[in-house]
């Protein structure tokens, strides 16, 4: 399939998502150093979980073609979800303060699809994606003769 856009979450976004686990691991290591050496085991466990979660976020791919938005994810077990563009009803962009600093954004797509009413594209680079996506949705609706009735 010929993709117009291929996006993935930023590594910085993935790092921010796992910071609580890293801090928890540091706390366990500090307690292990001063009091109970056995706490090294949960510290290593937290780091392994953080690493897996980091990789899990980095392996997400968002592919946008003229007809379909495909979200593929998974490290060991791959999963691909497709959303027909003509089913997208509404768009929403959220940018917390730290995401604004690093020029990242979260995009929420509301659709009429029964299996995925809401689709999130998280931690993607800030761009003119919404304008392009809006045009692609309108073109897909024209091609499929979709008329919205309120």
UniProtKB/TrEMBL annotation:
The keyword Nucleotide-binding does not apply. It comes from the Bacteria. Keywords: Membrane, Transmembrane, Transmembrane helix. Residues 60-127 form the YdbS-like PH domain. The chain crosses the membrane at residues 12-30, 36-55. The keyword Transmembrane applies. InterPro entries: YdbS-like_PH. Signal peptide: none annotated. Pfam families: bPH_2. This is PH domain-containing protein. It comes from Mucilaginibacter pineti. The lineage of its organism: Bacteria, Pseudomonadati, Bacteroidota, Sphingobacteriia, Sphingobacteriales.
